Every structure is written in structure tokens, then in C-alpha cells.
From TrEMBL:
Superkingdom assignment: Bacteria
InterPro entries, A to Z: Anti-sigma-K/W_factor, RskA_C
Record domain Anti-sigma K factor RskA C-terminal: where: 90-224
Pfam families, per the entry: RskA_C
Species, as recorded: Sphingomonas humi
Protein name (record): Anti-sigma factor
Length: 233
């Protein structure tokens, strides 16, 4: 597994902290290839988040952590080494989970021969949107078999009384609204069948500046802040 694919997996699994997290966010905004890696993991591992709820650590676990920290020695170095091993194991587990779920990994990832499938996995379409004049930067991934759209904002800024709206622009066609984009957090939505058919034609994904609540006309009314072409991953 490449270093970028591992880093993208760690970012999606929320294992990065401090400077590593900031560096990953900067790359997400400026490096379309890395943004595609993140979108690839989000589309495949995202459904797993919905299957497991949050659970608070027990008091007994916290007591064990405190006891370990009270022991003599360089605890900081030891904990950092343990964290590095845990992160590596978690990233490896993500790959294993993808294999067990029958997901198609990238061609450059060495894996055992996959089990025969009745039909090939649907292609994942990805667009990396980076503004030339505006600060907006986000990644949009679309999976045809589930009609699921995954929006990962790296930098989305909307002033008061304004909104950011996402559009699909088919080749030679009029823009089609894909809804509003929040400034933070991974956003998932299922696209209507009629709109999903237009994704098969490819095209461009764009984000525009609109009034609060979105365009009142069904077409972009403000400036196009960022755009990117759809491509298979």
C-alpha cells in the first residue's frame, strides 16, 4: 500500500493529530491526487461508521491508563511508539476490511486474487474542486450502484446570508442542483434516479455562491467558486 493511500486511510479513520492532521488538510485542499485517495476511502469505509455507535471508555480503563502513566520511565516516548504501532495496525485493518467487504482496491495495491464476483463493482466517479480566485476546496465522490454522493470539504467558507450550492454540469447540458454544501463535516446524500442517469455522461461538478437556502431560480445565480471534472478512480 502506497504512503499516500495509507495517509488517506489514517485521515479518514481520524487517526491524525497536530501537524500531521494540518499537513493532510493542506494536501486535501491543494493535491487532487491525494483528495481522490481520501474520497476513495470515504466512499468505502464511510458506511461502516453507521454500523457502530460511540461508546465511552470504562472507569477501569481510565484507571489502567493512569497507572501506566505513573510508572517510572520515558512514558511519552513509549506511548508514542505504541500509538504509531496502533495507527499502522488500524490502517492495515482498514485495508483488510475493504478486502473482506469485496471492495475493489486501486490497481497499484498488491492483493491476493479476488474471489469471483457475479458482476464487477460499479466505478467510483470523483471530482476535486479547487477555486482559482476563491478559497473553496472540496472533493465529491459518486457511486453509481448506490446513487450515493459523498462530499468532503477541505475548505468551504460562506459569509453571513450566503450559501454554497453544488451543481452537476453534464457535457452540453444545463447545471443540475445537487444541494447545498456545509462548511464542515463529511456529507452524504442519495441522488434521485433522474439525476443519477446524468452522472453516466460525466461532466463537471461545480460550487457556486448563492443566497441562504440556495438558488431561487434552479440555476446558478452567483459566482462559480470552484469546479472539477468527474473521473473514474
Amino acid at each position: 500500500m502506497s504512503d499516500d493511500l495509507t495517509l488517506a486511510a489514517e485521515y479518514v479513520l481520524r487517526l491524525l493529530e497536530g501537524e500531521e492532521l494540518l499537513d493532510a488538510r493542506r494536501r486535501l485542499a491543494a493535491d487532487p491526487a491525494f483528495a481522490s485517495e481520501v474520497a476513495w476511502w470515504e466512499a468505502r469505509l464511510g458506511p461502516l461508521y453507521e454500523e457502530f455507535g460511540e461508546e465511552a471508555p470504562s472507569r477501569e480503563l481510565w484507571s489502567r491508563i493512569v497507572r501506566r502513566l505513573d510508572q517510572p520511565g520515558d512514558n511519552v516516548v513509549t506511548l508514542k511508539r505504541q500509538l504509531a504501532r496502533w495507527r499502522a495496525a488500524a490502517a492495515g485493518a482498514a485495508v483488510a476490511a475493504a478486502v473482506l467487504l469485496g471492495l475493489q482496491l486501486r490497481p497499484d495495491t498488491p492483493l491476493p486474487a479476488p474471489a469471483p464476483q457475479e458482476r464487477p463493482a460499479a466505478p467510483l466517479l470523483v471530482a476535486s474542486l479547487v477555486g482559482k480566485e476563491a478559497p473553496e476546496a472540496l472533493t465529491v465522490a459518486y457511486r453509481a450502484d448506490t446513487r450515493e454522493l459523498v462530499i468532503t470539504p477541505a475548505r468551504v467558507e460562506a459569509p453571513a446570508n450566503r450559501a454554497r450550492q453544488l451543481w452537476l454540469i453534464p457535457a452540453g447540458g444545463q447545471p443540475i442542483s445537487l444541494g447545498l454544501v456545509a462548511s464542515e463535516g463529511i456529507q452524504r446524500r442519495v441522488i434521485a434516479v433522474g439525476i443519477a442517469r446524468r452522472f453516466a455522461d460525466g461532466g463537471t461538478i461545480a460550487v457556486s455562491d448563492e443566497p441562504t437556502g440556495g438558488s431561487p431560480t434552479g440555476q446558478p445565480t452567483g459566482a462559480v467558486l470552484a469546479a472539477g471534472n468527474l473521473g473514474t478512480v
